[in-house]
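pls read this stuff:
=====
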Amino acid sequence: MARHLVKALDGAKAVAEAMRQIEPDVVAAYPITPQTEIVQTFSQFVADGLVDTEFIPVESEHAAMSACIGASAAGARVMTATAANGLALMWETLYIAASMRLPIVMSVVNRALSAPLNIHCDHSDSMGARDSGWIQIFAENPQEAYDNTIQAVRIAEHPDILLPVMSMQDGFITGHGVERVEILEDKAVKEFVGEYKPLYSLLDVDEPKTFGAWAFYDYYFEFKRQQTDAMTRVPKVVKEIGREYGDLSGRYYDLFSTYELDDAEVAIVVLASTAGTARTVVRKLRQEGIRVGLLKPRLYRPFPGKEIVEALRHVKVIGVMDRSIAFGSIEGCGPLFLDLCASFYTYGNGKGPQIVDYIFGLGGRDITPAEIEGMVRELLRIAETGEVRQRVGYLGLRE
């Protein structure tokens, strides 16, 4: 296991530290709250000569991703960061980056989308991009944000994958929340990510390649099928790299993590920072003899449905906590709920626990332990009676 240095860092600075250690060839970025601190900190590393990175301060997020696409296609290791409206402005180019199989790594500090204007956390930005062809990984805290950033480079650049990665953390909650973070030695990170050797490059004049060419209906379909094939290989690679990173750091990563789930009667499924609050509630209720467990997805795209179904198959009721709404979906539910229901239909032969959804925390509204405890007691009532009064509910919503 490599030596490490303990620092007090917020999530944004932790990501910037990881980027400094990775030392990408190109970073093209535009500042937007609450992501600004990442590129601001990293730009200071560039100005101080601590990294040999070409930093491109562009005029918009659309331009940022466009520059990243060009640099990655030319054979560079490329990183960037954004949030909310900035991610939305990248919309066109997100699909281009994924479809051209460019291993760009982008840190997304989750923030609500306008309107009305809101700069605080929910997951509407990255959830809106969940089908753009990017791998998506969520972090619970600054430590995970740091670790995920380093692993994301290896995942994206793996020869069986070659897809861009979004590495998420919750805006302000972890992005600006200072915690204890273990930083690996620079040399250890450099050796872990290795030197990037692109399979294809626009600058290879000896073997010219075409990028982003016109594909009529006689070939476009096959390109999309190849992207799907690459996505199906992601979970295996994520697990392998998570184990290798664990050997290096002592912190092992998988597709998801669980807490007190093995004998649970009811379970909570939630992404990112709220998992910490939910874990506290589970611990308290366990002391009261209540058999409740927690599952925290880490890899969200591709959604590891088969593995999650296996982990949850034995419980009676699942309460999904969604920090965004899939507008127009079943009863106005959230995307995590939809993915979980589809997974049980696909891999559970249409059988499995009752699943209910709880929308929470939109626009950065706090979620309290008491509210989560109330949700668990409702799950227990459903487990006892079999009666679901409301398939989609709300936590912390004013009457």
Q: What stands out?
A: DSSP finds 14 helices and 15 strands in the chain. The chain has a mean pLDDT of 97. The two ends are 52 Å apart (CA to CA).
